[in-house]
């Protein structure tokens, strides 16, 4: 707990809970606007370590870390996704990398280059993918550090996401308090590995409707912080 408070102080929020929010990124961004509402409400109850999950400029290709997902002109110039080109480099310069930006609708395909340029060295491809893997490694290590600092983990689990499932598994191993929010009206069925993990105390799964997400968060966090929150409400119809 002392370490958590110290981390919160470093972020300019002395004495506040550290909250870790999980939501889908590469698994799909259909619920991004809902994530924004959740993060906004969570700020009432503590410091949200993972506010970026709700960022409007964060797409399905993840964060721009100078590797996979690096920003370039490909989305404006019609360059082929996955191609290796000179416009997609690390901030401040560096080797070209595999571009993940989608082509602009109606954009012309890139002109064919002369035969010698088509024979890209294997080392260039290998270097690009190594840099992409390095970016993912940094994200993984950073998020795990935040997860270790967190007092409470809140996850919106309606959109299936491998990353969210992984984060929840690590949170259980760290004995974190966990609240999972799921919308049955989506037509999806929540994984048994999530719903079946609920114990009504440290790990809770609450079904809800989109319009009541703020009220659900209020109910969870307005309980006495020294006690466990009451068991999950009855699933909504």
Automatic annotation (TrEMBL):
One of its GO terms (cellular component) is cytoplasm. It catalyses: a pyrimidine 2'-deoxyribonucleoside 5'-phosphate + H2O = a pyrimidine nucleobase + 2-deoxy-D-ribose 5-phosphate; a purine 2'-deoxyribonucleoside 5'-phosphate + H2O = a purine nucleobase + 2-deoxy-D-ribose 5-phosphate; 5-hydroxymethyl-dUMP + H2O = 5-hydroxymethyluracil + 2-deoxy-D-ribose 5-phosphate. One of its GO terms (biological process) is epithelial cell differentiation. Its main location: cytoplasm. Residues 72-116 are annotated as: Disordered. Keywords: Cytoplasm, Glycosidase, Hydrolase, Nucleotide metabolism, Nucleus. It holds the Pfam family Nuc_deoxyrib_tr. It comes from the Eukaryota. Substrate binds at residues 20-26, 35, 167, 191-193. Belongs to the 2'-deoxynucleoside 5'-phosphate N-hydrolase 1 family. This is 2'-deoxynucleoside 5'-phosphate N-hydrolase 1. It comes from Equus caballus (Horse). The lineage of its organism: Eukaryota, Metazoa, Chordata, Craniata, Vertebrata. The gene is DNPH1.
């Amino acid at each position: 707990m002392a370490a958590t408070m110290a981390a919160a102080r470093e972020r300019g929020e002395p004495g506040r809970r550290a909250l870790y929010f999980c939501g889908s990124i590469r698994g799909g961004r259909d619920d991004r606007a809902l994530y924004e509402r959740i993060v906004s409400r969570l700020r009432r109850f503590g410091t949200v370590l993972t506010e970026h999950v709700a960022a409007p400029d964060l797409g399905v290709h993840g964060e721009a870390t100078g590797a996979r997902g690096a920003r370039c002109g490909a989305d404006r110039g019609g360059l082929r996704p996955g191609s290796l080109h000179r416009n997609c480099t690390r901030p401040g310069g560096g080797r070209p990398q595999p571009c993940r930006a989608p082509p602009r609708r109606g954009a012309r395909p890139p002109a064919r280059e002369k035969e010698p340029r088509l024979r890209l060295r294997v080392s260039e491809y290998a270097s690009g993918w190594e840099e992409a893997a390095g970016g993912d490694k940094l994200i993984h290590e950073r998020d795990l550090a935040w997860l270790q600092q967190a007092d409470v983990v809140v996850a919106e689990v309606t959109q299936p996401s491998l990353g969210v499932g992984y984060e929840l598994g690590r949170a259980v191993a760290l004995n974190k308090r966990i609240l999972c929010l799921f919308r049955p009206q989506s037509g999806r069925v929540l994984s048994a590995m999530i719903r079946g993990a609920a114990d009504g105390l440290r790990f809770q799964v609450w079904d809800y409707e989109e319009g009541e997400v703020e009220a659900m968060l209020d109910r969870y966090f307005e309980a006495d912080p020294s006690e466990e929150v009451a068991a999950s409400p009855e699933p909504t119809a």
